[in-house]
Amino acid sequence: MPHVPKGRGARNRRRVAVCVPALVMLAVGLWGLDRGGMWRDEAVSFQVGRRTVPQIWALLHGVDAVHGLYYLLAHAVLTVHPGEVGLRLPSVGAAAVTAGLVAALGTRLARPRVGLWAGLLYAVAPMAGHYAQEGRSYALVAAGATAATLLLVRAVRGGSPGSWAAYGAVLGLTCWLHEFAVLLLCAHAASLALARVGRAWRGWACAAAGVAASLVPMVLVSRGQSAQVAWLRRPTAVTAEELLRGFLGPSQGVYAVCLALALAGSAAILGQRGELTLAGVALPLTVVPPAVLMAASQVSPLFVDRYVLYALSGAPLLVAAGAERVAGLVGRLRLPSSLPPRLVTLAGVLAVVLAFLHQLPLLRADRDPGTRPDDLAAASRAVARETAPGDAVLFLPAHVRNVALTYPGAFRGTRDVALVKGAAASGTLYGREAGPREMRHRLARLERVWVVADRKLLAGRWSVRKPAERAKLAELRRDFTGRQQVRRGGVVVRLYVRDRAPAAASRPPAPQSGPPRPGRS
């Protein structure tokens, strides 16, 4: 049975165990929050969040239905506090809440010091810190999933009649932030099975049915938008190892110690019949959602680590449970070096501080926008410096227009060659562009054009499929020569100048005999 202290002093210890990790996570999240730039996913949240509610609703019919609730939240936040810091603040707050909830789970299922250790481990985890500073939904999903897990524990332990309703409501809302949170039901079912509960199954099944029914509209819409994740690949054993390292600590020393403690903590997975144990809750939470999604992704690739960020909440609980077992073993041996309980608590806190210091370079590097896949602010500054009013600009592929939608000031006065209808007006993420024939016609009239492009695409490391994008590439490779360029992360800003004289450029090209030149569409 978990250690349940009594009295006013015990209540104070429980409060400290919950509040301290939340405050630490809040400090870590606020540290370096203004990076001075957004990467592509954050930029989508930003530019969609600044649209009107009817425009957001129109967008969701075509793309990103899975993020619809988050976009509405971002719209409300950006109305009050526009800017990238305002966009990220909900994630910081959600991460702080998650750290407190992890501590509350450890306190409820074991004892306050276990909750304190687990909450602090979550707060200093680089993976938690990374998504605490992302203007996306994943930190909020983690908070909702951890809250639902705590409500599950309360319901199983004989909470109020409305406990299962609260559990279903919180989990349902979390799944509307991201539908893959529904895999939490599998983890909770595993916890109930390990606890060998009887009466709880009925309440859980009713709540689970309500959650599943509420998700039907989203599933029906998002299935038609599956092309958005066509870029994903099947996860491998390497993927699983990387996720485990992300959960337990990416640095080798921290990873080795935490893995050993987590294995020790997992040993107590079974308790008395009808009793939820700490390991019985934490291990399925950590393992089941990623394992189910990885298995499903062998058939239809859907796995990305951020989709199961909420499973991270279980890992520090296992590590803290293992530390508690080690402390208990040392105490039972009655060694001369055995410490009083308060010093044991302090020793665990100091161990977390050492883990934090060991991983501090990773956390510091994560505050650099250059560590993200791209830095759209840096790309926009390059455009503002290189272009002049009236210059033609071409985005390749169309999603790179995200730079202009997020930082429109840098493109003021330039001409968007390919655009037919703006993003908000067309109900799309990046706007509607001209078709292949019109695209060739527009480019044929240009003597020079600034191309803002994906660096890997220009380097030939991947190819476009849409005919309009292929037409852009073909025209550039056939009739233009790249001159000066600026590279900013994954984005290249390059000036293309027509090979032939301007007079010839104004006329359609004459028919050629023989085979076409390389790159002709």
Uncertain residue segments: 502-521
Proportion of residues in β-strands: 5-15%
Q: Please give the count of helices.
A: 23
Cα Rg: 27 Å
CA-CA gap between termini: 71 Å
Average pLDDT works out at 91
Strand-pairing-aware structural class: alpha/beta
Helices and strands, in order, run as HHHHHHHHHHHHHHHHHEHEEHEHEHHEEH
DSSP helix fraction:
55-70%
- Molecular shape: elongated
The strand order across the widest sheet is 2-1-5-7-6
Q: Please report the total strand number as a whole number.
A: 7
Biggest beta sheet summary: 5 strands, mixed
Give an account of the 3D structure:
The chain has 521 residues and is an alpha/beta fold. It has helices spanning 7-30, 40-49, 53-60, 68-80, 84-109, 112-124, 126-132, 138-156, 163-177, 184-195, 200-223, 237-248, 252-266, 278-297, 314-333, 341-366, 376-386, 402-406, 423-426, 436-444, 455-458, 467-479, 502-505, and strands spanning 392-396, 415-416, 419-421, 432-433, 448-454, 480-488, 491-498. The strands form 2 sheets. It has a 5-stranded mixed β-sheet with strand order 2-1-5-7-6. It has a two-stranded antiparallel ribbon with strand order 3-4. The chain is elongated. The chain starts with 6 loop residues before the first helix and ends in a 16-residue tail after the last helix.
Can you lay out the helices and strands and say which pair or pack?
Elements: H1 7-30, H2 40-49, H3 53-60, H4 68-80, H5 84-109, H6 112-124, H7 126-132, H8 138-156, H9 163-177, H10 184-195, H11 200-223, H12 237-248, H13 252-266, H14 278-297, H15 314-333, H16 341-366, H17 376-386, E1 392-396, H18 402-406, E2 415-416, E3 419-421, H19 423-426, E4 432-433, H20 436-444, E5 448-454, H21 455-458, H22 467-479, E6 480-488, E7 491-498, H23 502-505
Helix pairs in contact: 1-5, 1-6, 2-4, 3-4, 5-6, 5-7, 5-8, 5-15, 6-15, 6-16, 8-9, 9-11, 10-14, 13-15, 14-15, 20-22
